[in-house]
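Quarterly update, task 2.4: fe (ii) ion-bound model.
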Amino acid sequence: MIDLHSHILPGIDDGAPNLEMSVAMARASVANGVTVLACTPHIMPGVWNNSGPQIRQSVANLQKTLNELEIPLHLVTGADVHIAPDLVGAIRSGRVLTLHDTRYILLELPHHVAPVHADECFFQLLTAGYVPVFTHPERLSWIQQHYDLMRRLFDSGVWMQITAGSLTGSFGSRAKYWAEKMLCDGLVHILASDTHNVGHRSPVLAEGWDAARRLVGDDEAYHLVVTRPYGILNNDLPGSLPAPPVAQLEGRDEMPARSGQRKYRAARSDQHDRMGDGGISRWMRQLFR
Ligand SMILES: [Fe+2]
């Protein structure tokens, strides 16, 4: 699996406080089935003043340590970018990083207040050729009042990333409900761990994947953790990657009771078989040669 959201870099945000924790998180990610991990520390002016060159150096240092310890995890650069004015200029100057220097950028909105100019920020990025990947909308306290914004952003070309732990219930029933609803409404492009440590914010992408499989089926769950994340790292055009399908979910407009009660009847394909383990290895070799 490819995990495109983590706070594994030591001592630069609210994630790993030191190298020891970073190494423990890397080991936990590998044990969870992750082979490529994006290091995406917060960039939030005045709170987390991280910058592109500093993040690149930190990723190189951590990769060197992992290689010395023979931990088979390939790191790529990125950032969890808080919404701010002139992000396009900040990307072009190198201060803000996209995912693996592609057109895709993780974008985070305030947790407790719906920003008035969110549309404008997304619009500026989209018209400059970037694809904003809206991080963990399901965990925002204001999602219920502004669910139409999610659909509008999706329709305008914004990608959505939900957190694996939201699907497993680690963030409570509310985040679980919205994660499941967005997934079944066909609004989610990728699943990521957003891991911060090996405690209550451990990398649990495999568990999230498993929960997603029960909701939307094997093929779409595979797209969430392999196909689309790989497409992002390969800088593929968003239109060339599979669009999220709408699940035919019984009673999905109501607060869900138990995931096991849901029925998903999307058309299946043989794509998963065609992209078996051999296929993934081939992709990886092409991507990182
Ligand atoms: Fe994050």
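Highlight for this quarter: The domain at 2-288 is CATH 3.20.20.140 (TIM Barrel).
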